[in-house]
Amino acid sequence: xxxxERAIFDLRRGLPVLVRAASGDxxxxxxxxxxxxxxxxxxxxxxxxxxxALTRHRLARLGIDFGPRVGLVPVVPGDGxxxxxxxxxxxTQRLPVDRQPVAAAPASEAALDLMRxxxxxxxxxxxxxxxxQRAQVEALVAEGTVLAVAAEQIDAYAESRSRFLKRTSxxxxxxxxxxxxxxxxxxxxxxxxxxxxxxIGDRAEWSxxxxxxxxxxxxxxxxxxxxxCDCGEQLRESVRTIDERGGGVxxxxxxxxxxxxxxNKLRAYTLQDGGLDTVDADQVLGFGEDERTYEVALEMLxxxxxxRIELLTNNPEKIAAMDQGGVEVVNRRGIYGKLxxxxxxxxxxxxxxxxxxxxxxxxxxxxxxxxPFRRPVAR
Length: 379
Hints:
Layout: H1 2-12, E1 17-20, E2 26-30, H2 36-46, E3 51-55, H3 56-61, E4 70-74, H4 81-89, E5 102-103, H5 106-117, E6 123-128, H6 134-142, E7 147-150, H7 151-160, E8 166-172, E9 181-187, E10 194-200, E11 210-216, H8 219-223, H9 231-244, E12 248-253, H10 256-259, H11 262-273, H12 278-284, H13 295-303, E13 308-312, H14 316-324, E14 328-333, H15 344-354
Parallel strand pairs: 1-7, 11-12, 11-13, 13-14
Antiparallel strand pairs: 1-2, 2-6, 3-4, 3-6, 4-5, 8-9, 9-10, 10-12
Helix pairs in contact: 5-7, 11-12
């Protein structure tokens, strides 16, 4: 686990790492921080030509129907770093006709998993290590100049992070919408993400099916009141509703931008300003429709000894995740914010493309641009 964490640290600093796999080792450079010098140095070190590793989501935005999870696009001398970055993240770009992708080997697939874990753009420049260069690469690994990590370690890390969730601290914090509230902090094993369980009310007074909200952190909406989304009002409405129903738990999850991280969310916002909806903007950057998983939420509920819940959500995927994880969802209750001219397109995309239950608020026959959503209605 430590080796994976160190690899993420190096990649976030813009340094290359070596990913080992039985089918062949690859030297990996993240897209972020990639310049012409790195494009020249990487194939020289590996002894093989470089390639750009892209997800199938990004390839689809480039007009390529690609079955495998990750594709490799050849990089040739003369391809500058700006062109490589554009192939990976620019909506207006298309690949040259002579650069059709091929399926990536396991080491390159694992490399993009590292990018996702590190909240980097899921793209990388990779080069397979040749037999002639193996001794030199191993010497750099031995002296600590290049960090090596096994693809199997990356896979295991991605699968097990939530099972090493540690409860670190707690404190009573009265809130404007819930005076009896305790914040309980949980930290993931790598220390990169911290999640908070806001425990509302007296547990002895809770109903049998505990009201629970899974709320993904949204700095722009929750803290600054962004009008591009409804997150901040959903957050406060959830706290108020849980308190009114006798208490329960709000899980505040470090899953900014549906799991892509704040930096990538801001990149997606810029793409949305060019006309894309929220789903398409994420896919331009190489992400899927929703990168969130809910193992962390399940682990938090297990540590809080909560197994039957009334889920405050408009998202069917959250219900499915709880059911599959062994938490019984007895009831669903819709939770809404305010519809604005700035967030209407965002909410419409969530309803039409992600199946969120927003029929209560998206009425084509009525202008509600300045009207608060209706109070939550039990389902």
